[in-house]
Design a protein that fits this description.
The chain is α/β, with parallel strands linked by helices and about 240 residues long. The chain has helices at about 40-45, 65, 70-80, 95-105, 170-175, 200-205, 220-225; strands spanning about 1-5, 20-25, 30-35, 55, 85-90, 120, 130, 135-140, 150-155, 160-165, 180-185, 215-220, 235, 240-244. The chain is about 20% helix and about 25% strand. The strands form two sheets. The protein has a seven-stranded mixed β-sheet. It has a seven-stranded mixed β-sheet with strand order 7-8-9-10-11-12-13, with no helix packed on it. The chain binds zinc ion (2 copies). The site of one zinc ion has 7 residues, from helix 2.
Length: about 240
């Protein structure tokens, strides 16, 4: 299994990095964890055919994590139709928000523009869900105060990936990371500061307790980028391909 880092940036374009998009390629499955506005272009830059995509699995509904979905829709509608429906899974409200966003971006007139064939699935915290044959265990993380933000434990054919989504540091990561092949953890800040994101000081203090096989940091802000040479973990870079 391979992880293609399509985009590892934050919402602010820090370091000129593309927005969130983590493409997991297995033998017979291709699925995307989060879909920032730049996901489709990054996939084409990596010469991966978007028609191969089975599912988009969303951690939360912030723009840098889901605003790229409508671009896949118009690609399927006008350029390269997909033979089977795309599955879009995410926290409660995903279908409504994705539909609204698509209408805002490409609708017009009095009737809603029709989506290409799409199956929406709701991810409920702590309810294991089968998404196109991929085992997803969503769990709630502290990031948004009202809406539900999810971390995602994803398994396929014996490989396990943990994705933090956007979240401040939580003890849950220790438990969920135990034994996983790869933990993709957001780390927006270097120093402790207010905000619902991981900072490197909290992460570093917990490194000895993290029992994952690989740790990759992502969603780095400017302050983290400025401290890159001091980090005791792999840092994601756009275009990077990681063997899992
Ligand atoms: Zn974000
Ligand atoms: Zn967010």
């Amino acid at each position: 299994m391979k992880l293609h880092i399509l985009g590892c940036g934050d919402a602010f374009g820090s370091g000129g990095r593309h927005q969130s998009g983590y493409l997991i390629e297995a033998n017979d499955r291709l699925f995307l964890l989060d879909c920032g506005a730049t996901a489709l272009l990054s996939m084409k830059r990596a010469s991966i055919d978007p028609r191969r995509l089975d599912a988009i699995i969303l951690s939360h509904l912030h723009g840098d994590h889901f605003a790229g979905v409508p671009f896949f829709f118009i690609d399927y509608l006008y350029r390269q139709p997909k033979s089977d429906p795309l599955v879009v899974a995410g926290p409660p409200g995903t279908e409504e928000k994705v539909r609204q966003l698509f209408q805002l971006m490409y609708g017009g007139g009095s009737n809603d523009k029709e989506l290409p064939p799409t199956c929406f699935q709701v991810l409920i915290p702590d309810q294991p869900t089968n998404v196109s044959g991929i085992e997803v265990v969503p769990f709630r993380v502290p990031h948004q105060s009202h809406e539900i933000s999810l971390g995602l434990a994803v398994g396929y054919k014996g490989k396990q990936v943990l994705f933090s989504g956007d979240s401040m540091w939580t003890e849950t990561f220790i438990e969920k990371a135990r034994g996983v092949d790869l933990f993709l953890c957001e780390c927006s800040f270097y120093n402790r500061q207010p905000g619902m994101h991981v900072n490197y000081q909290d992460l570093e203090a917990n490194l000895p307790r993290l029992e994952c096989k690989q740790l990759v940091l992502t969603h780095l802000g400017e302050e983290m980028l400025a401290h890159q040479n001091k980090l005791a973990a792999t840092v994601a870079v756009d275009g990077m391909v990681i063997e899992i």
